[in-house]
Amino acid sequence: MSADEPRISLLGTSALLFDAPGPTELDTQRRIWALAEEAGQWPEIREAVPGMNNVMLSFVRPPSSLTSIEARLRSAWASASALKLEGRLIELPVVYGGEGGPHVADVVAHTGLSLDDIAEIHSAPIYHVYALGSHPGYCYLGGMDQRIATPRRKIPTLRIPGGAVSIGGGQTGVSASPGPSGWNTIGSTEMRFFDPASDPPALLRPGDSIRFRIAAVIR
User: Fold this and answer.
1) What pLDDT, in 10s, does the model give residues 125-144?
2) Are 34 and 48 in contact (CB under 8 A)?
3) Distance, CA of 48 to CA of 204 (rounded, Å)
4) Among 75, 141, 161, 166, whose Cα sits 20 to 30 Å from the Cα of 1?
5) pLDDT by residue (tens digit) across 61-81?
6) Whole-prediction pTM value?
7) Per-residue pLDDT tens digits for 6-15
8) Residues of the chain with CATH 3.30.1360.40
9) How far apart are CA 40 and CA 139, in angstroms?
10) Residues of CATH 2.40.100.10 domain(s) within the chain?
11) Which class in CATH covers the domain with range 89-217?
12) What are 188's strand-pairing partners?
């Protein structure tokens, strides 16, 4: 299979994963959103969930053959146009460093940048919400400046708090709830991303955007 072709793989007998070719970019992700919207209307599909550069399709019932679904997916992807979802822009004040940024020294050491530089670079872009996943309310974001890209931690942290702002490889994200993480936590925000009593329970959705604002830098 060519690297320019999508990859389709089974997830047990009840679902499959469609992986788009190429790097994760906003235009590609917008095509992912379009593919998920179209495939979600097919009668044999229970749900179409967009991920980072992929779509998971769950079946109404396990198919006897994947041939026709694979063919429809490839055809739909080839003709998919970028779907520009009009979302909201959410501003998140972040305290960089201090107790809420326990791994910022590792990012400083890897990048050779100062804490002030990292805060400025991290807060400069408008980040697009590509997908939700990992845990309820968590957003996969695109748009981080690669000058502050830092490898994931060799030994994961057993627990980071909700609102932890972290960098993992070429991505950044904000933890929606307490839990383990292999990313480098550089700061914290007070925003609540998931509330099961709300409708919808997740604060953000694909198409929304985030702008981080420097609330403070603590050395």
Assistant:
1) 999 999 998 889 999 999 99
2) no
3) 18
4) 141
5) 998 888 999 999 999 999 999
6) 0.88
7) 999 999 999 9
8) 7-79
9) 21
10) 89-217
11) mainly beta
12) 95, 164
Q: Is the peptide bond before 43 cis (omega within 30 degrees of 0)?
A: no
| pLDDT-based confidence at residue 104 (cuts at 50, 70, 90) | very high
The encoded tokens of residue 151 equal 């490898």
Going from the C-alpha of 67 to that of each of 72, 91, 112, 117, 203, the distances in angstroms are 9, 45, 51, 52, 38
Residue whose tokens read 């309820």: 136
Which H or E element spans position 156?
none
How far lies 148's CA from each of 19, 42, 82, in Å?
Answer: 27, 42, 28
Select 7-79's CATH number: 3.30.1360.40, 3.50.50.60, 3.30.565.10, 3.40.50.10470. 3.30.1360.40
Give the Cα separation of 215 and 165 in Å (integer): 13
